[in-house]
Amino acid sequence: MNVHQLQRALNGLVDRVDTPAPIVVRDVMQRNIDRMQAFAVEHGLGLRPHVKTHKCVEIGRLQVEAGAVGVTAGNVGEAEVFAAAGFDDIFLAYPVWPSGTKGKRIRRLAKTARLRVGVDNIAAIDALADAMGDEPDRLQVVVEVDCGARRSGAPPEAAGGLATAARKRGLVPAGVYTYPGHGCFGPDSREPAAQDQEGALTTAVRSLADVGVTAEVVSAGSTPTVAFATGSVITEIRPGEYVFCDLDNTRIGACDEDQIALFVAATVVSDWVPDQVILDVGTKALGREGSPEKGYGGIAGHNAVLAKLNEYHGFLALPGGESRPRVGSVIPVAPNHVCPVVNSFEELIVTDRSGTSVERWPVAARGLLS
Ligand SMILES: Cc1ncc(COP(=O)(O)O)c(C=O)c1O
Asked: How far is the CA of 166 from the centre of ligand 1 (A)?
């Protein structure tokens, strides 16, 4: 979608939407969903989108209708929201520690959905088995291994030992997963991170086989690396951001600008300072994703970026020739990183290219962190 179409959609919405507001252009999003699904089918992979990006049941349904095998959640609360909405195949791709009420909630969830949870250490395996009481076999665990992101995840060669420990406690070891978080640093980091991912998963699958466990699922990330996650060991992919795309993903070549499906509609509220106008979007709406070098969000189709954010103010720098929007005009801000933006709002405004149709879809898992 070009910038003129986008501005037309916004103009069509102005009287019906209070800014700042997250505007989702439906057909652009649907094309993103369909494109990723076609990629998965072409490579014989299951697609299990990460719902932390949209936290929205309606969008999860579109992904499943397109052919996704299930969804990925980032915490128990997200899993609960989607399970309550009827999603029956959920992977909680996080090394959960079942403290507080989480153990009980996981046990409850495992009764209503096929639930898989991540594990990367024996203490958590024991705690999850304890939480499952006399029905540990209802819970499938997937061993998280590290492939170079140096975040969570056991060394790949330790996967078999963890699967054995899970099996001993009556849990069902279903396979292995990893997250190639080091694939988002730049255009040249995507493919090497995907290669690291494939190597780590291959080692982990072998480690499971060595202890007599077949990896039913071998699960890989992520929007920046997914194009290279096609090795034969991988059975499923878990991209999240692809559904909306964002500027960070365009900068590293993981999507094109015309695939960005979510913009924050913002109003120019003040323009006294030369070479700058103030928009009504700040950190409360956009989060803090950015840097002085790349800015904190861009204006679709222009070089202009938000040079600074306060909580409710966005400083839109307009150096030299950039045209200066009038006070009162509404303009589309493209986020650097879309996930925190969605989590700032109660609902998504879903529209078409002309801004004629408007639906409001709740961000049902908004704010759920545990
Ligand atoms: C474990 C895990 N899987 C999948 C993803 C999805 O990655 P992306 O949002 O880059 O597509 C993430 C993102 O943080 C993640 O942490």
From this structure: 24
Comparing 2-6, 219-223, 242-246, 276-280, which segment has the lowest mean pLDDT?
2-6
Which residue among 179, 236, 244, 337 has the greatest number of ligand 1 atoms within 8 angstroms of its CB, and so is best to mutate?
179
Question: What separation in Å is there between the alpha carbon of 104 and the centre of ligand 1?
Answer: 26
CATH class of 26-243: alpha beta
The pTM of this model reads 0.97
**Homologous superfamily, domain 3-24+254-362:** D-serine dehydratase-like domain (2.40.37.20)
| Greater pLDDT, 2 or 249 | 249
SS (H, E, C) the chain: CCHHHHHHHHHHHHHHCCCCEEEEEHHHHHHHHHHHHHHHHHCCCEECCECCCCCCHHHHHHHHHHCCCCEEECCHHHHHHHHHCCCCEEEEEEECCCCCCHHHHHHHHHHHCEEEEEECCHHHHHHHHHHCCCCHHHCEEEEEECCCCCCCCECHHHHHHHHHHHHHCCCEEEEEECCCHHHHCCHHHHHHHHHHHHHHHHHHHHHHHHCCCCCCEEEECCCCCHHHCCCCCCCEECCCHHHCCCHHHHHCCCCCHHHCCEEEEEEEEECCCCCEEEECCCHHHHCCCCECCCECCEECCCCCEEEEECCCCEEEECCCCCCCCCCCCEEEEECCCHHHHHCCCCEEEEECCCCCCEEEEECCCCCCCC
